[in-house]
Structures are given as structure tokens and as C-alpha cells.
Design brief:
mainly alpha
Length: 79
């Protein structure tokens, strides 16, 4: 088995930054806003018989769901 020593590259990786918590709150705000609009579109589309509003509401659920994984990764320990 070979072993190889990797030389120091002269730089560090800084993952989270000083505004990490502020940015995380902003992402949660965007998720909440998207989910709220999703519910409004689904309810309004159902009440007024608009298939387009209902479809767009369900489509917005994919957007709200797509914003969730980056937040999960933000809480994982950095190696």
C-alpha cells in the first residue's frame, strides 16, 4: 500500500461565513413565503375552479421542497 503526503496548499477553506445565521433565516423566510403562496393558489384554484392555479400551487411545492436540502447540509459538520 502506498501512502502519499499532501503538501499544505497555503490556503484555508471557510465554509460558513460570518453571516451564516442571517442567511439561514432569510432562506427560511423564502420557504415560508413560497409555501404560503402555494396554499393560497391551491385554495383559490379549488374555490374558483381554476386548474391552472391548482397546478401552479402544486408546482410551487416543488420549489419550496428544493430549498430545503441546502439548509439540511448547513447543519452537517464540516470535515
Amino acid at each position: 500500500m502506498r501512502t502519499k503526503t499532501i503538501p499544505a496548499s497555503g490556503h484555508n477553506h471557510f465554509f460558513l461565513g460570518s453571516d451564516h445565521q442571517r442567511n439561514e433565516r432569510r432562506v427560511w423566510l423564502v420557504i415560508g413565503l413560497t409555501a404560503s403562496m402555494m396554499l393560497v393558489e391551491i385554495i383559490a384554484g379549488t374555490l374558483y375552479g381554476s386548474m391552472a392555479l391548482v397546478a401552479d400551487g402544486w408546482h410551487m411545492s416543488t420549489h419550496a421542497g428544493a430549498m430545503r436540502p441546502p439548509l439540511s447540509g448547513a447543519h452537517q459538520p464540516q470535515l
